[in-house]
Specification:
The complex is a heterodimer of chains A (412) and B (698). With 412 residues, chain A is an alpha+beta fold. In chain A, 26% of the residues lie in helices and 18% in strands. Chain A contains nine helices and nine strands. The chains are: A alpha+beta (412), B alpha+beta (698).
């Protein structure tokens, strides 16, 4: 009797515990499901640290925020002292905007200090501010010629480019990325408000990253998954950052060459091309993102070029094979990409004007981006894309603490 | 991928061994009974009923498996997930119960069964068959269910089925050996150890099943993800496939899955390991002492034996063999009409094209084609009546498979593997029956390179004529520049430019570098208009409209004349790809849209619309060369295209002011939009032509 009572008690406890766990799991799951439909970027961090050895917005956050604006600006400051002041102001604004907070009340004698488009309390919303210098910053205006990073030049014109001056160059590249478009807009509005006398815009392009459709790497506007294969871990660090052994000026250590290319996609033309031709141009299946030799249908499985030396399955001149032949020799030319799509109204001929803001970071622009782009010259895809703007920039080293500012070592 | 075979190998081995042991014991008991009886009477008991029972049980299990498989294929993907998830959970319950039952019974199994044999023999041979049927059928359906769910979890069929087959075969061999006392194994240890592995697999299947139920929306929380490693690890790497294959876990799991997995293992494993009753070593199956008879009351009354007649036993045997397949067939027949595509597996080998091709139902069908030929193949599905292609995979790599979906109209079809040497390169013909509700795709007659050859010859001779004209036009400009008459040179530049446009060649087309040298714009050159590599008609245009001196333009013109002469002499060598013609018939105007209608190529003459009109003329010529091939495949296409080209021509001519061409910027928005609309309409139609006239790729 005693034994069965104990068993009964045990059974009842186990039953109650089981019911509680099961019920809890189901209720919690239902709650998350309901919540997730409201948040469109569950993975995006609410705040990305501003201070660090490297700037944020390059390798962090991962995955990249969904909205961006890339603004090239020309410095109008007249002296090195004014330039320093400009960099200090940008630093202060970036520090505030990326951490969020309440804008100061300037009292009755002044218009409000903030536009309020993000409300009275400015949220960080995953904002990153990344400041890079173009080659023209190192001309004779500020006495910085001797400090110019070794390979920083105006962007090369590649065959098949159709560069327009108005969309190229700039003394500075200000890359703003955040989880929402209004946060990006607010940051640009705030920074330009505080720096009117010091810099003026050259061009600006807003970007977005699509949701995974249906899963995996997001698609670009040609309908293909883009950015599948990226260097990772230690290789990523090594390929991305300028170090003491890079042979660059000392101030440039922990910086990175920042390439921005505005690439128009001729999507009407593209949509009139057969699926076989499209896939052969990329080397991947459009639906799955898997390489054309895939036996798994998984986009992450690397292609086996050794098994297909003639390019019978994955054409030798397709985009992925030229960009990354996956040979030992090509390994040092890998780049870390951070692309955004843009969509900008219509072209003169009534075609939708849209494409890709190709963004990549690397230790050495010649050995990496230019080597890749040289391999891609005359790839079949060139008929359907038209690079028309952008530039080479150098992402400054990170701002390390509250007493540091952008370019402190450069301007010291 | 072969790691996916492990769980099923385990299941096959274990369930097979259990069923096999039951059969062995029954056989042994019957034999013993016969021996015992033989000393008294001459009655020998046949073992046939046992085998009948076994066979009937196998039929039952197979029928069950067929129903499971078929129902999955006709369900929507949500339905598949719900069913798969539900059955997974049931399978886990059954397997768990089986494990504990086996542990409890292992010791007494032989005894219990022998007793049942005694009972059965007292009743009839049919009862003996029934005992075998129940024992094996129970294991069999359980196996079918678990194999099916494990195959679902791993997402493929080959490896799991192979694993199960190997496991069952091993079990059968082991049973035979055991029966003949060739080997002895400690069955308690065997069942104890495999049980632990089985519990781990069952935990994975439980997690998988719950995940499916969440995906299907039956259970909440599919977005409450505990971890998702899919972005960081390659699920097809060998070590991942071993982990996922042998545990049935996936690289992405929800919290419900994780908690259920941990709870299941956390409860079942300890109970199994520490709650285990002391076991006496299992004894060899044969030669055991006879079981101690249980209470006599359990035994069937003698008169029941008379109740079971011979006729009834025949009926029972017949029923055992026919009912499960009939029920399975009925269930499949009354299944909701296959609305989703049914997937058929076809194989291309070194000697056969589309092995496995057989009659299918009309309507949406999908075919997964595996290439085991060792080289790249193209494969087309051809409608016999029209000899037209209704579906194709252009490039199927060796060792890969792709799925192709097509809505099939009733009729005869066969597969062709162009370029493949084996078996004549095509499959046998099979019939598609039934009716279709939706529209089937129009079959497209294949085109060969030879079909396009005459068109290329005609086109090349047309180009040769144009180049002769161009050469004389360039010579005229050269003469005018020589006499310093820039006005005349400007006037004569446009006809030369238009002659080139009428050729219909694009800068990066089949004329090699000549396209760039004769007619490229300054884009893409480091120094733009000042770049020494910027040459040809647009370079000349730039100079003529930007106040450059005649003396500066003479070298440009000389160079242009040289390029034209070289191209004339190399034309037949360069323009030798007939498959470029269908592409050109479309892309001539794509280039006009990109280069001229954006004003991008204009170097000052404002001739963009004039050049576009020349492109229209070029397109008419190219279309004319391949018109018969197009019309044979799409009878209504060309009349539409020609009519749209007329509209485009009218829109272009309307942009002129007093009979003179003007630059795009000087044309009103309405007129520009008329041009853009017309060219867009033509292009949407001409974009079909490269697909219609596509030749085999390999």
């Amino acid at each position: 009797m005693d034994v069965s009572r104990r068993n009964l008690l045990r059974g009842a406890l186990a039953g109650a515990a089981g019911t509680a766990v099961a019920g809890g799991m189901l209720v919690a799951g239902a709650k998350v499901d309901a919540g997730a439909s409201a948040i469109d970027t569950p993975d995006a961090p609410a705040q990305v640290p501003f201070h660090g050895v490297h700037q944020a917005g390059i390798l962090t956050p991962e995955p990249q925020q969904r909205y961006s604006t890339h603004t090239a600006l020309n410095v109008t400051a007249a002296s090195k002292a004014e330039l320093t002041e400009l960099f200090q102001t940008i630093t202060d604004r970036a520090r505030f905007l990326t951490s969020g907070g309440t804008p100061p009340d300037l009292g009755v004698g002044s218009p409000p200090s903030d536009s309020d488009i993000l409300g009275p309390e400015v949220p960080a919303d995953g904002l990153t501010v990344t400041l890079s210098a173009g080659s023209t910053l190192f001309d004779d205006r500020f006495g910085l010629a001797a400090s110019k990073p070794k390979y920083l030049t105006p962007m090369r014109t590649f065959p098949n480019d159709a560069l327009e001056d108005a969309w190229c160059g700039g003394d500075l590249m200000l890359q703003l990325c955040a989880n929402s478009p209004d946060t990006v807009h607010h940051a640009l509005r705030d920074i330009t408000k505080h720096t009117r006398g010091g810099m003026q815009p050259q061009f600006r392009m807003d970007g977005f990253v699509s949701q995974p459709r249906p899963t995996g790497t997001p698609r670009n506007l040609l309908g293909f998954k883009d950015g599948i294969s990226q260097p990772e871990g230690a290789e990523q660090q090594q390929l991305c950052w300028v170090t003491k052994s890079s042979g660059e000026p000392a101030w440039a250590v922990a910086g990175s060459y920042h390439v921005v290319r505005l690439i128009r996609m001729l999507i009407e033309f593209w949509d009139r091309v057969s699926i076989n031709e499209q896939q052969n141009m990329f080397g991947r299946f459009r639906d799955s993102g898997a390489t054309l030799d895939s036996t798994t249908g998984n986009e992450l499985t690397p292609p086996d070029y050794a098994a297909d030396p003639q390019g019978n399955v994955i054409p030798l001149d397709c985009h992925i094979r030229l960009a990354n032949p996956r040979t030992k020799k090509a390994e040092p030319s890998r780049i870390y990409r951070r692309p955004y799509n843009y969509d900008l109204g219509f072209d003169e001929n009534g075609n939708i004007q849209c494409g890709l803001i190709f963004v990549c970071f690397q230790e050495d622009v010649r050995k990496q981006f230019e080597a890749v782009q040289t391999r891609l010259i005359d790839e079949p895809l060139t008929d359907y894309i038209q690079p028309f703007g952008g530039g080479y920039y150098f992402a400054l080293p990170g701002v390390q603490n509250t007493s540091d500012h952008y370019g402190r070592a450069l301007l010291a | 991928m072969w790691a996916d075979a492990l769980p099923n190998l385990l299941i096959g081995l274990r369930e097979g061994l259990e069923a096999g042991l039951v059969v062995s014991i029954l056989l042994a008991a019957v034999r013993k009974h016969s021996e015992a009886d033989n000393t008294g009477t001459s009655r020998t008991v046949s073992t046939t009923p046992i085998w009948i029972g076994v066979a009937a049980a196998i039929v039952l299990a197979l029928s069950f498996g067929a129903v499971l498989t078929f129902y999955r294929s006709v369900l929507s993907s949500t339905g598949q997930e719900a069913l798969g998830g539900f059955l997974s959970v049931i399978a886990v319950g059954l397997v768990t119960a089986m494990i504990f039952w086996m542990r409890r019974t292992a010791r007494n199994l032989a005894g219990e069964l022998r007793e049942r044999v005694d009972q059965a023999l007292r009743i009839s041979t049919a009862a003996l068959a029934l005992t075998a049927f129940i024992a094996v059928g129970r294991e069999g359906t359980e196996t079918a269910l678990f194999l099916w769910t494990a195959a679902q979890a791993s997402g493929q069929t080959t490896a799991p089925v192979a694993g199960a087959a190997i496991g069952i075969a091993a079990a059968v061999i082991l049973c035979v050996l055991l029966y003949h006392r060739a080997v002895k194994i400690r069955l308690d240890k065997f069942f104890g150890r495999t049980a632990i592995l089985l519990i781990i697999v069952a935990g994975g299947v439980l997690a998988y099943g719950l995940g499916d139920l969440q995906e299907a929306g039956v259970l909440p929380g599919h977005l409450w993800v505990a971890f998702d490693l899919t972005a960081h690890i390659d699920p097809s790497s060998w070590w991942m496939s071993i982990i996922t294959g042998s545990t049935e876990l996936s690289p992405s799991m929800t919290w419900l899955q994780v908690v259920a997995y941990i709870c299941y293992l956390g409860v079942v494993l300890p109970i199994f390991i520490w709650g285990r009753p002391a076991l006496t070593p299992a004894r060899p199956i044969r030669g055991e002492p006879a079981p101690v008879p249980r209470m006599a009351a359990e035994r069937a009354p003698r008169d029941e034996v008379q109740a079971v007649g011979r006729r009834r036993s025949i009926a029972a045997v017949t029923a055992a063999f026919t009912v499960p397949p009939v029920v399975a067939g009925t269930l499949i027949a009354v299944a909701p009409g296959a609305t989703g595509a049914t997937d058929h597996q076809l194989t291309v080998t070194a000697t056969t094209c589309a092995q496995g091709w057989s009659a299918v139902q009309a309507g949406e069908q999908s075919f997964t084609i595996s290439n085991k030929s060792g080289h790249v193949v193209e494969i087309n599905l051809i409608q016999s009546a029209s000899q037209g292609i209704v579906a194709e995979i252009e490039t199927l790599g060796p060792g890969t498979r792709q799925t192709l979906s097509v809505a099939l109209a009733p009729g005869s079809y066969f597969w062709r593997c162009p370029g493949s040497s084996g078996a004549g390169g095509q499959s046998a013909t099979a019939t598609v029956t039934g009716s279709t509700s939706g529209a089937a795709p129009v079959p497209v007659k294949p085109v060969t390179v030879a079909d396009l050859q005459p068109a290329l010859r005609a086109y090349n001779s047309y180009v040769a004529g144009k180049l002769t004209t161009l050469a004389s036009q360039v010579a005229k400009i050269r003469a005018e520049l020589g006499s310093g008459n820039l006005t005349a040179a400007r006037t004569d530049w446009l006809p030369a430019m238009l002659t080139w446009e009428q050729v219909g060649e694009e800068p990066y087309g089949s004329f090699g570098d000549f396209g760039v040298e004769i007619a490229a714009g300054p884009q893409g050159f480091e120094q733009g208009v000042n770049d020494p590599d910027f040459t040809g008609l647009h370079r000349l245009e730039y100079g003529l409209w930007h106040g450059q001196k005649a003396s500066a333009l003479i070298p440009v013109t000389n160079q242009l004349a040289k390029y034209v002469t070289s191209l004339q002499s190399q034309l037949d060598k360069l323009s030798n790809d007939p498959t470029s013609l269908p592409v050109r018939s479309h892309e001539v105007l794509e280039d006009a849209l990109r280069d001229h209608l954006t004003g991008q190529l204009d170097q000052g003459s404002g001739a963009d619309y004039a050049e576009t009109l020349a492109d229209v003329q070029a397109d008419r010529v190219v279309l004319g060369e391949i018109a018969n091939l197009i019309t044979a495949r799409a009878p209504h296409l060309l009349p539409a295209v020609y009519s749209e080209l007329n509209t485009l021509r009218q829109a272009l001519l309307a942009t002129r002011v007093n009979g003179q061409w003007v630059s795009i910027n000087a044309v009103s928005l309405t007129q520009r939009q008329d041009v853009d609309a017309a060219i867009g309409a033509v292009l949407e139609n001409t974009s079909l032509i490269p697909d219609l006239l596509e030749t085999p790729a390999h």
